[in-house]
From TrEMBL, chains A, B:
Superkingdom in the source lineage: Bacteria
Keyword DNA-binding listed: yes
Organism listed in the record: Streptomyces kunmingensis
Name of this chain's protein: GntR family transcriptional regulator
Pfam families to which the protein is assigned, alphabetical: GntR, UTRA
Domain HTH gntR-type: 9-77
InterPro entries documented for this protein: Bact_HTH_transcr_reg, Chorismate_lyase_/UTRA_dom_sf, Tscrpt_reg_HTH_GntR, UTRA, WH-like_DNA-bd_sf, WH_DNA-bd_sf
Family matches, as PANTHER family: GNTR-FAMILY TRANSCRIPTIONAL REGULATOR (PTHR44846:SF17), MANNOSYL-D-GLYCERATE TRANSPORT/METABOLISM SYSTEM REPRESSOR MNGR-RELATED (PTHR44846)
PROSITE patterns found in the cross-reference section: HTH_GNTR
Keyword Transcription regulation listed: yes
Length: 252, 252
């Protein structure tokens, strides 16, 4: 794999490059243990620090992850495919199914740390939901855990004036969830906008999502609108990017 | 901002947290200079190394960026809003407009480093395009530069058997681009699937996109299908995540 370009690069970079190529070629599969520092020192005739730096490059890129006392392993990447459009179809929540049941295939997804509170609306939320200054929102916070690993934090905001006294203010919103309840109130959400950003997690997000080094988060902000164009919910989500593929299928 | 939780955290973390809060509260806007090491040392009574670590945290998160000799500044984030669905509407490319002209508002977007070559198809591409073992693809590679900053690398694959002899094999594909040419060939793309992933860039990607530390890339893989469900193009894109908001608008 040696070429003129690579040869001008530091040794640890060349070693990292050749390990990355081996991973991409399938010589090391997901979950496989990579050569350790001692192996790299022997193979490439380098110092321990150089071997360590090479493995550090792959860790920082999120290609590999260290497991305490066991070595460095190729990241096991079995992301959930989140079908952005199909999952929000009316026949989904209209028939009493939860939105995320469209995603999970044979995986085990549980929702934990559910809290529901009445709060004053953050400025950005109040502006989009077109609330008066003193209006409050119902804030639903929850965390989603996939196969034992936390993958998603979600916070929904709904105008309190709309949802007061309904199951939306309870932990369990009932069959079909909050959207089915909004439909019963005469405000079925029929149009959605999802905005996707990506950045590195804050320390706090990384802790809550048990994230490995070198892994970004997706931020998805969804706004749900009624037929008349009234925004009835904002859902701000933070996703472990290594756990998701976001898919959108649509017609030209 | 002191609370019991924070007080157990290392000093540099607490300083980073309070700077981050000040940024989020708008005390420091995009492009503003943050307090330097000397300022932080005086304000918090800490050593230079602690001040440096605090600023390092914000850099690693992509919240701030260092400018050589000038200090550390709040990241200027003026992302392009990429409207995933509207931009691919038939009236867009059907009327001779380029797809990305839907995105750019008043910004200056230029395409550079265009190369068009015939190559054997990578396995994953051949599998999706349903190619025979010996079939080749037309590979179109280009880079997009927004307001002088490279933001997107795109590589399209089209079956050579379909596009041979057409403007798709030329650098300039003509009005409406490759999709308009496919329509003329009797293969208008009418259905699209976009898959979005996010991860840290490789060294090479970071260089090509002139990326700051602590910034991930979006990977978008788009497949274009004809009415009959035939896949006619795969477009693999790598985007500087700090330069984009991906937006999808759709009906329930």
């Amino acid at each position: 794999m040696a070429n003129t370009d690579n040869d001008r690069r530091p040794k640890y970079q060349r070693i990292a490059d050749s390990l990355r190529e081996a991973i991409q070629a399938g010589e090391y599969g997901p979950g496989d243990r990579l050569p350790g520092e001692n192996d790299l020192m022997a193979t490439y005739g380098v110092a321990r620090m150089t071997a360590r730096q090479a493995l550090g490059v792959l860790r920082d890129e999120g290609v590999a992850e260290a497991r305490k006392g066991a070595g460095v392993f190729v990241r096991e990447y079995r992301p959930l495919r989140r079908r952005g459009i199909q999952r929000l179809a009316q026949e989904q929540w209209g028939n009493g199914r939860s939105i995320w049941s469209a995603d999970i295939e044979d995986r085990n997804l549980v929702v934990d740390q559910v809290t529901v509170v009445e709060e004053s609306a953050p400025d950005r939320v109040g502006a989009v939901l077109d609330l008066a200054a003193e209006e409050t929102v119902c804030v639903r916070r929850r965390r989603f855990v996939l196969d034992g690993k936390s993958v998603l934090l979600a916070t929904s905001y709904l105008p309190m004036s709309l949802v007061t006294g309904t199951a939306i203010t309870q932990e369990d919103t009932g069959p079909g969830g909050a959207y089915a309840r909004l439909a019963e109130l005469g405000y079925p959400p029929v149009h959605f906008r999802e905005e996707i950003r990506s950045r590195m997690p804050s320390k706090d997000e990384a802790t809550q999502l048990s994230m490995s080094t070198g892994t970004p988060v997706f931020l998805i902000c969804r706004t749900a609108y009624t037929e008349g164009g009234r925004p009835v919910e904002i859902n701000e989500m933070t996703l472990d990017a290594a756990s998701y593929i976001l898919e959108y299928d649509f017609e030209a």
